[in-house]
Amino acid sequence: MITAQAFSSIQAIDRAAWNDCFPGALEDWDYIVAVEEASIEGFEWRYLTLFQDQTLIAVATAFTTCYRLDTTVQGLSKRFTETLNRVLPGLVQLQLYAIGSPVTEQCSAGMASHIPGALRPALLARLLALAQKDAARLGIGLIAVKDVPRHDEDWAHSCKTAGFQSMPGLPSAMLAVPFGSVEGYLGSLGKSTRKDMRRKLRAPGPRVEWRSAIDDVLPEVMRLYEASLERSDLQLERLPPTYFTGILQQLGDRALCVLYWVDEQLVAFNLVLIDENRLIDKFFGHDLELTRDYNLYFRSWLVNVDYCIRHKIALYECGQAGYASKIRLGCTFQSNMLFFRHRNWLLNNVLKMVKLFIRPDRHDPALAAAISEY
User: Fold this and answer.
1) Which of 22-36, 53-67, 70-84, 95-109 is predicted with the least confidence, judged by mean pLDDT?
2) In this structure, are 167 and 178 located in the same domain?
3) Picking from 29-33, 148-152, 310-314, 369-373, which range would have the lowest pLDDT averaged per residue?
4) How many domains, the chain?
5) Which CATH number does the domain housing residue 350 bear?
6) Nearest 5 degrees, angle CA 132-CA 45-CA 3?
7) What is the torsional sign of CA 84, 69, 342, 47?
8) pTM of the predicted model, to two decimals?
9) CA 47 to chain centre
10) Mind spelling out the 3-state secondary structure of 169-231?
11) Per mean pLDDT, which range of 52-61, 78-87, 151-160 is the poorest?
12) Membrane-spanning residues where (predicted)?
């Protein structure tokens, strides 16, 4: 007999049982614990579980928040929606219940290793039904499934059967690293990009320091984080200091923070997750006034590529932003989908029209190119 239950803390779920549903995941139970304990403002966490007798057989992370429909809108349109939000906030902001996470790379739903793959569609449908029931209990009408890989037909079928609409999400950027040296990587780029990167490397660069703890420089790290956040149109969450320190502490040698120094001044940092198969770039913060002088973004990119080469890591997963640069730097992109439904039929029909305006590829040509690559 299968029973379904939603929890408010991952601590209620056995660590080994959870990780068995996500074999090889870097963003595993320990990562989710660190996220939960960081107490990110404006978010409440939900954990959807299916048990067969007393054995966990399927699980998904979820969250609730007040969601701005224009989160992926940029440029002039963003300024218009910000004005509209100040005048009529109820039109732009809705309470949201979403399967997935604002701080993981893709929708986090998994099955225990002993469960046959043929059962996955039925289990996903059960998790989706549990999410809808949990959202109704919390009084939330808008339900979504966030960052589903476009090739995941099981999720697509379950969502469409339940009456969910779909739209493109932010694609995930990835760089395969089969190179024997940084010079070999540069040789794989287009001529103009290769020439530009070599010119950047000839200029004086910052001192690079790899850290497993940043408590002594945390105020400076947060200064750089806040400055970078203010320049982003696409950020859903605002991370507190406890997120950065908690990730480093909880994940041990699977998380590092790369610091970039000019003399005694911290000018950039990069939080990364690492295992033998991939390096995940979680956040890059930098001093905008010094970025151009020291080519901080491109320097950090090459530092990460070099780390992958030296440690024989085959994949650099580099996030959901900066698509124009990442196209030039040789990335490929995995398209993601967002599925959503509002219990109120009128609002659901309104969202059918609104989604045509808030599609992320409508406002950013580079992002549209990354989506269309699929």
Assistant:
1) 70-84
2) no
3) 369-373
4) 2
5) 3.40.630.30
6) 50
7) negative
8) 0.90
9) 18
10) CCCEEEEECCCCCHHHHHHCCCHHHHHHHHHHHHCCCCEEEEECCCHHHHHHHHHHHHHHHHC
11) 78-87
12) none
Q: Residue 179 corresponds to which amino acid?
A: F
Q: Is the dihedral of CA 261, 192, 231, 105 positive or negative?
A: negative
Domain span holding position 140: 2-171+336-372
Chain centroid offset of residue 193 CA = 27
Q: What is the DSSP string of 17-35?
A: HHHHTSTT-SS-HHHHHHH
Cβ-contact 84, 73 below 8 angstroms = no
Q: Are 236 and 42 in contact (CB under 8 A)?
A: no
What average pLDDT does range 196-220 have in this prediction?
A: 93
Positive or negative torsion for Cα 262, 264, 267, 273: positive
Give every CB contact of residue 234 below 8 A, 6+ residues apart in sequence: 71, 72, 74, 170, 320, 321, 360
Closest by Cα among 276, 277, 328, 275 to 301 = 328
> 3-class SS at 15?
helix
